[in-house]
Amino acid sequence: MRYDQWLQLRIGLLACYQGKPAALISERLSPDYISMWLIHRGNVKVTTDTRRYSAGKGQGVIVGPGPRRQEFSPDISFHSFSFFANWPDGKSLLGSGLPCCFDLSGRSLVHRLDRMNTMFESFSPHHGFFSFQESVSLTQYFRIQQEFQGILLDLLPVLERNGVQITDRKELDARVLRAIEYMEHPPDRMKPVTLAVLSKACGVSPSHLDRLFRNELGTSPMFWYQKHRLQRARHLLHLGEMPVKQVGFELGFKSIAHFSSWYKKQAGHSPSLEPGSICI
């Protein structure tokens, strides 16, 4: 692909830390991000719709987006690394072949994660735990990106050896891309994004924008928007850094009742049932 096409890839670090997970068993996870664990002690068992994997000391496991169950042994000690890598249409960069398990034959990945955690300890209030909600300076942002990209470079041969497919970008209409950018980063999070507001921002009629989305992505703009909001809500809930009410506020809901009602309609269960969620 051309370089300018790669520039449309949405990729970034979500969380990175060393130690133990917040919960040993998570039954109903359905994240849209990619997780990697490097196991130093204990083991983990991961079950998806198509595969079941187990990894122990001296091994790593990479799990892609989608429903999964994960169970860690009580003595688990690991490096945890989560990131997103999606095209504008929502398709993950990593296609078939996940989850995959691999041996830590070298120390390169471990050293990179150690270095990243040491860097976080210098500016993170969570003593080595980093999440995408952290406030960082431009210099710190560039340092994080440098280490993050180095880890991804080390992962590429691992993915290739395990037959994990790298997906191609789909060409999208510029107006669809503009609409996606607006929905991902609305100018005022407390003002609802409607089809009328979105179409005006993109310079087309509501009916035309709706047709463009259905032709390009097979769904309506508002369905795409609600899916994106649900994904972001899950990210925040799984991190376990803010109460459910605050998560709702971050997404533009003015009351926890409204947020809970919307979340239950979208996900089929209350936000308080998500792993990591904090109820106050």
What is the strand content? 15-25%
Order of helices and strands: HEEEEEEEEEHEHHHHHHH
Which stretches are low in confidence, meaning pLDDT under 50 for 5 or more residues running?
none
Write the CATH fold name of the largest domain. Answer: Jelly Rolls
Largest sheet: 6 strands, antiparallel
Number of DSSP E strands = 10
Write down the Rg. Answer: 19 Å
Quickly give the structural class.
alpha+beta
- CATH level-two architecture of the largest domain: Sandwich
- Class of the largest domain in CATH? Mainly Beta
**Helix segment count?**
9
Side-by-side strand order of the widest sheet: 9-6-3-8-1-10
Count of domain modules: 2
User: How does the overall form come out from the CA principal axes?
Assistant: globular
Provide the helix percentage. Answer: 25-40%
Alpha-carbon distance between the two ends: 48 Å
Question: What does this 3D model show about the protein?
Answer:
The protein is an alpha+beta fold. The chain folds into 2 domains: 3-161, Jelly Rolls; 174-273, Orthogonal Bundle (Arc Repressor Mutant, subunit A), CATH 1.10.10. The protein has helices at 3-6, 108-121, 138-161, 174-184, 195-202, 206-217, 221-239, 244-250, 256-267, and strands at residues 10-19, 25-29, 34-41, 43-48, 52-56, 59-63, 68-72, 77-86, 100-103, 130-131. A 6-stranded antiparallel beta sheet has the order 9-6-3-8-1-10, covered by helices on one side. Strands 2-7-4-5 form a 4-stranded antiparallel beta sheet, with no helix packed on it. A hairpin with a 3-residue loop joins β4 (43-48) and β5 (52-56). The longest helix has 24 residues, at 138-161. The chain is globular.
